[in-house]
Amino acid sequence: MKSFLISDNRDTWVGMRLAGIGGVIVHEKEELLEALQTAMKDEEIGLVIVTERTMDLAKEEIMDMKLKVARPLIMEIPDRHGTMRSENAITNYIRESVGIRI
């Protein structure tokens, strides 16, 4: 299985290319959704990596895809500038998804 990066940042894209991971750079919501659809149609792609800033362009649509499709796994990562999320982002995500406090 291959991994695929969708980033708004050229530095993140170059770093992933050096690690052997292909991808695209997008700046608009339509470009992001088109890249996601392309990645979902490719049977060889098992992991789609999306940077945080890119995720913010279409968060609702991506979260909907994460819930409805089994493949590829969609994962959010910070870019070279570090995370924009709060310290408790994972805890908050679990609380929102499952409805329990941990």
Verbal overview:
- By secondary structure, this protein is of the alpha/beta class.
- The protein has a single domain (2-98), classed as Rossmann fold (3-Layer(aba) Sandwich), CATH 3.40.50.10580.
- It has helices at 10-18, 29-41, 52-55, 59-68, 89-98, and strands at residues 2-7, 22-25, 45-51, 73-77.
- The longest helix is centred in the middle third of the chain and has 13 residues, at 29-41.
- The chain starts with a strand and ends with a helix.
- InterPro entries: ATPase_V1-cplx_f_g_su, ATPase_V1_fsu_sf.
- This is V-type ATP synthase subunit F.
- Belongs to the V-ATPase F subunit family.
Topology diagram in text:
Elements (H helix, E strand, L loop, with lengths): L1 E6 L2 H9 L3 E4 L3 H13 L3 E7 H4 L3 H10 L4 E5 L11 H10 L4
Parallel strand pairs: 1-2, 1-3, 3-4
